[in-house]
């Protein structure tokens, strides 16, 4: 089943073209991004049921013009024949004045190729055709199944979020449109025994419709059992260990280490150490990392970014050598590089930044059982909790939900939790000695630029063996 383009955007395109034509008489570059994103969030727990619009719901436009010095933007919610004069007047009065009185860096005029393309994503079940009552009923069944597993379960949250994203991008030479669905579902389980409380969760996500919910029952009992097992977990003894990172932890490392670290707007501001290492080794020679909207089919896949640049598959690291960063259009203009299709906005009212999309390590040739057998004393880390990185100094911190003890090449059944992994990015990546064949991606969550500007991303990779510091 194909996603259907927003009627609002389709009906607005003739007026957007008129607006561009009018503004182009004054300004050397004019583009318009139109967005219409809708969807619902469903949460079922032991004590509550919640249904609401997704936080990314939006409908509106943003105009970008070259003001004679650099670029200015103007956003608005509605467009009509009678309202065009007011939009043009506002742009001329406000944006022109700002460009004249505020000193700023200059930017060249964007040179575009003529492109007309469309993308309509595929799904199995359209969530817009499923009633809220049916969705709540299905999520409640999963919640009840989990709660009945053990008296140690204090609460269970079952969540399903659906997104229907439609966008147009128009300029003097471009006419682009895309419409697609994203789906994410997860179960979070809280176990309690005496004074000890532990939480474990797992998610599903992708360019999917309501079909994603059908898989929740299959993983519900696994999540319950793992949360109960964590009640007996011990704290990690600080030290340096050989570890195996599950695909979600590998993705967390990719995201924090050379995701944020190679966003090229940070190159422009001299806030990223990665700019000094392009063409140099930063990881072991069995490490290759990608980012890009077409690098994988997942939560951050699209035809074009929010600046009208077609999505790409960017090889960030190849055989351990840092190849390039990921860029928005204006950073690429300033640096004299080719934009990689990573200019993304939280909404049409927000600035476009260089942002990650689908970020992951390539698979290798090793078997997981051989990787486990190679460890004398260490851990298998899994369950992403959080992470952060300092692009200026390449420090990294990743928190995993648990570590499974490995002694003499075998899993002992003992757990540590929580697990805090810290270190210097090149040291961590250069310590990678084994990489499994299978690659998995996940993306049920958000990525912020610092503490704000949230967008959907995915990350992942294979199992990797590395040497890390745990605390």
TrEMBL record:
Alphabetical list of SUPFAM superfamilies matching this protein: Putative modulator of DNA gyrase, PmbA/TldD (SSF111283)
Cellular component terms (Gene Ontology): cytosol
Family matches, as InterPro entries: Metalloprtase-TldD/E_C, Peptidase_U62_metallo, TldD/PmbA_N, TldD/PmbA_sf
Domain Metalloprotease TldD/E C-terminal positions: 238-465
Top-level taxon: Bacteria
Gene3D superfamilies, A to Z: PmbA/TldD superfamily
Pfam families registered for this protein in UniProt: PmbA_TldD_3rd
BP terms from Gene Ontology: proteolysis
GO molecular function: metallopeptidase activity
Family: Belongs to the peptidase U62 family.
PANTHER family: METALLOPROTEASE TLDD (PTHR30624:SF4), UNCHARACTERIZED PROTEIN TLDD AND PMBA (PTHR30624)
Protein name: TldD/PmbA family protein
């Amino acid at each position: 089943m194909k996603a259907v383009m927003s009627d609002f955007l389709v009906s607005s395109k003739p007026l957007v073209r008129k607006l561009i034509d009018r503004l182009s008489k004054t300004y050397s570059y004019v583009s318009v991004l139109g967005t219409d994103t809708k969807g619902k969030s469903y949460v079922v727990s032991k004590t509550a049921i919640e249904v609401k619009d997704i936080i990314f719901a939006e409908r509106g436009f943003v105009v970008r013009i070259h003001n004679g010095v650099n670029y200015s933007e103007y956003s608005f919610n509605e467009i009509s024949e009678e309202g065009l004069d007011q939009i043009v007047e506002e742009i001329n009065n406000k944006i022109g004045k700002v460009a004249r009185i505020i000193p700023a860096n200059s930017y060249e005029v964007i040179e575009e190729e003529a492109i007309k393309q469309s993308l309509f994503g595929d799904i199995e079940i359209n969530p817009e055709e499923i009633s809220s009552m049916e969705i709540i009923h299905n999520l409640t069944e999963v919640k009840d199944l989990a709660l009945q597993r053990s008296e140690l379960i204090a609460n269970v949250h079952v969540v399903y979020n659906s997104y229907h994203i439609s966008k147009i991008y128009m300029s003097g030479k471009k006419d682009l449109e895309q419409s697609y669905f994203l789906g994410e579902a997860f179960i979070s389980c809280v176990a309690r025994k005496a004074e000890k409380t532990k939480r474990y969760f797992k998610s599903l996500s992708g360019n999917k419709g309501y079909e994603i919910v059908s898989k929740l029952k299959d993983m519900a009992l696994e999540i319950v059992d793992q949360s109960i097992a964590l009640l007996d977990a011990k704290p990690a003894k600080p030290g340096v260990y050989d570890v195996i990172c599950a695909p979600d932890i590998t993705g967390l490392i990719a995201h924090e280490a050379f995701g944020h670290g190679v966003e090229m707007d940070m190159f422009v501001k001299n806030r990223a150490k990665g700019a000094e290492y392009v063409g140099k080794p930063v990881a072991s020679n069995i490490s290759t990392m990608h980012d890009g909207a077409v690098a994988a089919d997942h939560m951050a896949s699209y035809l074009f970014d929010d600046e009208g640049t077609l999505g790409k598959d960017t090889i960030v690291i190849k055989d351990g050598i840092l190849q390039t960063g990921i860029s928005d259009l204006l950073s690429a203009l300033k640096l004299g590089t080719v934009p990689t299709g990573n200019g993304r906005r939280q909404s049409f009212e927000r600035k476009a930044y260089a942002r990650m999309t689908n970020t992951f390590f390539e698979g290798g040739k090793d078997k997981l059982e051989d990787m486990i057998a190679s460890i004398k004393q260490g851990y298998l880390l899994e369950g992403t909790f959080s992470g952060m990185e300092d692009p200026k100094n390449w420090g990294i911190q990743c928190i995993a939900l648990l570590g499974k003890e490995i002694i003499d090449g075998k899993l002992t059944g003992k757990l540590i939790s929580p697990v805090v992994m810290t270190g210097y990015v090149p040291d961590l990546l250069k310590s990678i000695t084994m990489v499994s064949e299978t690659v998995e991606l996940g993306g049920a969550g958000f990525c912020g630029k610092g503490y704000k500007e949230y967008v959907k991303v995915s990350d992942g990779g294979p199992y990797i063996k590395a040497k890390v510091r745990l605390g």
